[in-house]
């Protein structure tokens, strides 16, 4: 099977990779903000 027969498959694949990466970044950003809030509440700067 030639990859040239399914260009749309690669578009979907790349879009899926990008959205998965964005979701992972969102998850890490939420965790980092929670961690910072915990430190601030523990030490009360």
How would you describe this structure to a colleague?
The protein is mostly helical and 45 residues long. Helices cover 82% and strands 0% of the residues. It is built from one helix and no strands. It has one helix spanning 7-43. 0% of the residues are buried. The mean pLDDT is 82.
Give the helix level as a range of percent. Answer: over 70%
Distance between the termini: 62 Å
Share of residues in strands: under 5%
Largest sheet: none
Task: Count all strands and give the number.
Answer: 0
Secondary-structure element order, N to C:
H
> Mean pLDDT, rounded to whole units?
82
Q: What is the approximate shape?
A: rod-shaped
Cα radius of gyration in angstroms: 19 Å
Oligomer description = single chain
Query: How many helices in DSSP terms?
Result: 1
Low-confidence stretches: none
User: What class would the helix/strand composition place it in?
Assistant: mainly alpha
């Amino acid at each position: 099977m030639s990859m040239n027969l399914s260009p749309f498959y690669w578009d979907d694949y790349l879009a899926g990779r990008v959205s998965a990466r964005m979701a992972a970044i969102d998850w890490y950003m939420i965790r980092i903000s929670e961690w910072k809030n915990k430190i601030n509440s523990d030490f009360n700067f």
